[in-house]
Design a protein that fits this description.
Strand order of the largest sheet: 6-7-1-9-10-8
Largest sheet: 6 strands, mixed
Distance between the termini: 57 Å
Helix content: 40-55%
Structural class: alpha+beta
Oligomer: single chain
DNA sequence: CTGGGCATCT
DNA sequence: AGATGCC
């Protein structure tokens, strides 16, 4: 029962497609709650583009180090090659292959550690920004994909462009010989293919990245078709071939939106192919998945997708995580949390918004079902801490208070509290992942918003004017000519890129411009200048937050485990302090061999000689030669120890960064009675609930970590209003993600 | 020997 | 808080 009659099938799906895609009619979706709560009606026929960058991480690394261009390159996270360049793919490597398998297939493979996503994130937002500069309707999907609704652009071009251009397709046309196509039937898709080609060219010329694009009438089809001709090509799907591309999906898992769980449920219903799902009665699907999901699945199976391209904007949460084989001591947890928080606070600082919520997530080891079962606890961030995450400009000077370090110091105890809500550290535990996350991000005060709005224009490679036009316009059709002008200017000018050295364009707009212009350097200044060279300044400000009488000796420092900041230590619950000081931990292993700070070996010499045939010796030589050559080309880029995670000595909480004013005196025999070990002054400065907690622990000799205190965030509506609340204010903060650091 | 993010829905 | 999905 294959699709015997192509024309009948196509006609039917096309009819349904038009039927469902037009929200004005849409009786199909009417009975149940509409799956996409798109407010506005979606145009009857849209032109949707899907961009998918080629082996994105690998491309970024090859740009950073061109010596990697022509050698097989894999991007490694832990034991996985998450992606690899096309040189490596020619030798059989695929995405998400284990390092072991990869090296077996390709002994010369050069690996770069890709656990730090900073560079990928930055480049990713540059791409989104570039697309947005042509049309604001851009939706991100991961770091390397973007949807774009160019319907209005197409309509405008339809009126403007000469006839001859309307009737040719750029790039491939699915299931057609491109030159052969009767493009006059699909002038909009044809123009969409022109736009896609221009945008891909812009991405290439301005950012140096190649990628694929799909052109179709909805997101699902655009995404499906974009990958049909793989590296650096584009493909248009004509409506007449809708059933072809859907029918070609080898399994239901290939349908975007059908994940592991959904596929398993469908398989339990006896469905394995797309055709199975197409024919399966809707009612039975409803009982299994509920109305909306069932209808959505049915629609997807026939290539129907009326979900709108929703502009993504700035992220709603920032998180940082690390996975490892085993973590089983509080000391390790504390250090890892410090590490993660340092980098997360730094990112949050650059963002400029103030997080209202902090979340800690862990994954426990379990022999069965290793990959799920994450647990998390979250709590509101006290305002006085949240403010410190954002560094505050000092008067008219560009130097800012080094408050980010303090923010980390105060967040660590918060995180440890959450940790102990999940893990009873008096019993054995075994974690394999820790994640820290800021969410509920709040744009900062109206008046002092110089940081967010103005800085973005400076760090931004495009003119403020154009950004304003494109981001504030939304979907209004009122200023078509304006956007069109903007667009055409861009398109015609992209052969010559003039990044407009920003300074002069914006200086006129705000007296704070010089302050904002240096914003990108602020973090460095705050951590170096404020903490080291300018202690009085820093102290003056820290004293406002904390009554810190005088500086005291550092006697305890030497007793602390390495990398534990005494300032932080002081703030920890005594039980944790005790745990950290106990001989078991002091002597305990620093041996998390999977730690990201451990150098990644490229290539693994003993492994190769052991595993491979005798001839691999020559390969080994070659690889070594390549490695050395690459290292010599760029000394800052060490293949053997590629670790972008954290340059040495930049940790805000490294041991040498000694803070003033901690004064907790503990005896050498660290694990004796608490009250004698605790400085009354310090105790009196602790928050009341912490005091209560400590008291109860001393009395009971038991970790009672329930805070009876007030955890009443009084949260109400934070779910829905992404569209309205987001866009306007979000446009500014979004730009921050578009700029190099 | 399946990473490190992100989002949405419940 | 968790599940699920996407890359």
């Amino acid at each position: 029962m294959d699709n015997s009659e192509d024309e009948v099938e196509e006609d039917e799906t096309e009819w349904r497609s038009g039927f469902v895609d037009s929200a004005l009619l849409s009786p199909v979706a009417a009975p149940g709650p509409s799956l996409n709560k798109t407010s506005g009606p979606t145009p009857a026929h849209r032109v949707i583009l899907h961009f998918d960058l080629d082996c994105f991480y690998a491309q970024v690394e090859m740009i950073r180090n061109p010596a990697l261009r022509d050698i097989p390159l894999g991007i490694q996270q832990k034991y996985i090659i998450v992606t690899c360049n096309y040189v490596a793919r020619e030798q059989g490597l695929t995405k998400l292959m284990s390092v072991t398998d990869a090296k077996e297939k390709c002994p010369q493979l050069v690996l770069v550690n890709g656990e730090d996503l900073t560079h990928y994130r930055e480049m990713s937002y540059k791409v989104t920004e570039l697309l947005m500069s042509y049309c604001p309707l851009v939706e991100r999907l991961g770091f390397d994909e973007n949807f774009m609704d160019v319907t209005e652009m197409v309509e405008r071009r339809l009126a403007q462009t000469p006839e001859s251009n309307k009737f040719s397709f750029k790039g491939n046309v699915y299931n057609h010989v491109s030159a052969d196509v009767t493009a006059s039937d699909y002038p909009r898709l044809a123009l969409g293919s022109h736009i896609a080609a221009e945008l891909r060219e812009a991405i290439h010329s301005k950012l140096g990245l190649t990628g694929c694009a799909g052109i179709a009438t909805n997101k699902l089809l655009a995404k499906l078709v974009s990958g049909t001709f793989k590296p650096n090509q584009q493909t248009t799907l004509l409506p007449e071939n809708l059933s072809d591309i859907v029918g070609c999906l080898s399994s239901l898992r290939k349908v975007p939106g059908v994940g592991h769980q959904t596929a398993k449920k469908l398989q339990a219903l006896g469905l394995v192919s797309i055709q199975d799902l197409q024919r399966f009665p809707l009612n039975e699907l409803v009982t299994e998945f509920g109305g909306p999901v069932a209808q959505r699945l049915k629609n997807l199976a026939i290539g129907v997708d009326d979900s709108p391209v929703t502009p993504t904007g700035a992220p709603q949460s920032l998180s940082d995580e690390d996975s490892f084989k085993k973590m089983s001591s509080t000391k390790e947890v504390l250090e890892k949390i410090q590490q993660l928080l340092s980098s997360l606070v730094e990112r949050m600082n650059k963002d400029g918004r103030q997080p209202q919520t902090f979340r800690l997530t862990i994954r426990r080891y379990s022999a069965t079902n290793k990959w799920f079962s994450r647990e998390s606890r979250q709590c509101p961030i006290p305002n006085h801490i949240g403010q410190k995450i954002i560094s505050v400009p000092v008067f008219s000077c560009n130097i800012s208070v080094g408050s980010s370090d303090e923010a980390v110091e105060q967040l660590v105890p918060l995180a440890m509290k959450l940790f102990h809500k999940m893990v009873d550290s008096s019993a054995a535990f075994h974690l394999t992942l820790i994640n820290v996350c800021f969410s509920n991000l709040q744009t900062r005060g109206a008046a002092a918003s110089g940081k967010g709005s103005i800085a973005s224009f400076f760090t931004h490679s495009t003119s403020p004017k154009r950004t304003q036009i494109c981001t504030s316009q939304r979907q209004d059709d009122s200023s078509l000519s304006g956007e069109s002008h903007c667009m055409d200017h861009q398109l015609s000018a992209h052969s010559r890129i003039t990044p407009r050295t920003t300074q002069n364009t914006v200086t006129t707009e705000s007296p704070c411009s010089s302050e904002a212009a240096l914003h990108g350097l602020k973090w460095k200044q705050s951590s170096v200048v404020a903490a080291v060279e300018d202690p009085p300044l820093r102290k003056a400000y820290s004293s406002t937050a904390r009554s810190d009488p005088d500086e005291k000796s550092n006697t305890v420092t030497h007793q602390l485990p390495p990398n534990v900041d005494p300032e932080v230590f002081k703030l920890l619950p005594v039980e944790i302090q005790k745990e950290l000081l106990s001989p078991a931990y002091v002597n305990s292993l620093p041996s998390t061999s999977t730690s990201p700070s451990a150098p990644v070996e490229v290539p693994d010499v003993p492994h190769i000689t052991k595993n491979k045939s005798p001839q691999s010796f020559t390969d080994l030589q070659n690889t070594e030669d390549i490695k050395e050559a690459v290292n010599e080309l760029d000394p800052s880029y060490r293949l053997t120890t590629v670790d972008h995670k954290r340059p040495p000595g930049t940790s805000a909480l490294s041991g040498e960064n000694v803070m003033e004013g901690w004064r907790l005196s503990l005896p050498r025999s660290s694990d004796c009675e608490f009250p004698g070990n605790v400085d009354p002054e310090v105790f009196s400065e602790l928050p009341p609930d912490v005091q209560r907690e400590l008291m109860s622990e001393w009395k009971q000799q038991k970790p009672v970590l329930k805070t009876p205190s007030s955890r009443k965030p009084a949260r109400s509506l934070l779910t829905k209003d992404r569209k309205a609340a987001g866009k306007g204010s979000q446009a500014n903060s979004l730009l921050k993600y578009f700029k190099p650091s």
